[in-house]
Prior knowledge:
GO molecular function: FMN binding; oxidoreductase activity, acting on the CH-CH group of donors, NAD or NADP as acceptor
EC number: 1.-.-.-
Protein name: N-ethylmaleimide reductase
Number of helices: 10
GO cellular component, one term: cytosol
Strand content: 15-25%
Largest sheet: 8 strands, parallel
Strand order of the largest sheet: 14-13-12-11-6-5-4-15
Shape: globular
CATH topology of the domain at 71-326: TIM Barrel
Keywords: Oxidoreductase
Helix content: 25-40%
Amino acid sequence: MTDRSTAKGTSLMTSSSLWQPFTLGRVQLAHRLALAPMTRNRANPDGTPGELAAEYYGQRASLGLLISESTQPSEDGQGYLATPGIYTPEHVTAWKTVADAVHAGGGNLFIQLMHAGRMAHPDNTPHHRRPVGPSAISAEQDMVTMTGPQQTPVPRELDTVEIQDVIAEFRHAAASAVAAGADGVEIHAANGFLLHQFLSPNANHRDDSYGGSVQNRARIVIEIAQAVAEEIGADRTGIRISPALPLGGLDEGDAEAVRAQYRYLVGELARLNLVYLHVFHVGDDELLRSLRDLWPNALLLIRYGRTREQIAADIDAGLADIAPLGQFALANPDIVERLRTDSPLNEVDPATLYGGAEAGYTDYPTLAGN
C-alpha cells in the first residue's frame, strides 16, 4: 500500500465549516469529520471483537466521533460471518477494550446496532436457525459462508410477540454498549437490513399493525428508537437511514412513495429528540432538503460517490453538520491530519476489506511512518 496523491481541487484546509467544533449530545467534537460504520468481518467466533479491533479503532480516534461496524443485538441478528455482537457479558468486556482505546486517543465511540433480518444464512449464525424478517420473502441474495456463496433462504415471518422481543433486544444491546463504555449507539435502519426491510413494501407484505401503510411500516423503527432512547438517553441515540438504497433486494417504490415514507418516519423520530440522524444519500436532493428541515438535531450525511474535494460541501451548504468518512478513513488512520495539511492519501486495498488479520486493517501507514 503506497502513499499516493489524489486529484486535488479546492483545498479542505480552507474549509472553515469542516474544522468548527460541535456539541453532539454529551460529547464535544473538535471538528465535523467522523468514522463511518464499516463491516470488516474480523470478529471472533463468539461474537467478541477481534484482537486487533481496539488497535484499529484507536488508530482512528482523531476522527472524534467513531461509529463502529455493524454489531448484532442478538443471535438472530447476525447475518454475515465474523461480525461482532453486543448482547453477552463477554461482548461487553471485549468492547470495553475498544472503547478504552478510542477514549485514550481523544475520540468517542458509538456502537452501531444492526439486525440483519432476512439478509442472513443459517450457516453464519450461532444457532443455525432460519433467519427472520417482516414477511416470508427471500432477499434472493448471495451470502458468503464458510462453504462458499449460498443464497439467502426464505425467512420466517416475525409474529407480533416476536417483534416485541426484537425491540427488547435492541434495548438490551444499547444498555450493553453503554456498559462497555461506548458513548452512544446508532440504530441501523438502512442498507437492506431488518428495519429497512420493514420500511420496504416489497419485503413487508404484512396486514397487521406493522405493515400495509406508511405509518405501520415505520412502527418498529420508531418503537425501537423510543425504547433505546428510554434506556440510555436520547442524547446518546443516533439512527441511520438510506432512502431508496436498493441493497438486499429492496425496492421502496417510486420517488413519491419514498418521500412519503421517510418524511413520515423522520418527522416521528424527530419527536424523540435523538442526538443525530445519519443519512446515506443516493440522489433525491428534494427529499434530503425536506429531511434536513424536519430534523432538529445533528445530521450526518454520506453522499454516494463523494470525492475528497466534496467532503465539506454538504456542511458548507447547510445540509449536514458532520461528514462521516468511509474508505478514506479505512485506508488513512491519520485522515484528519492528511486533510488538514492537504497531504496525499493511501489507496484502499480491496482484497483486504473483509476478513483476515492486520493486513489492510491496522497496517496502513501514517504520515509519521508508523
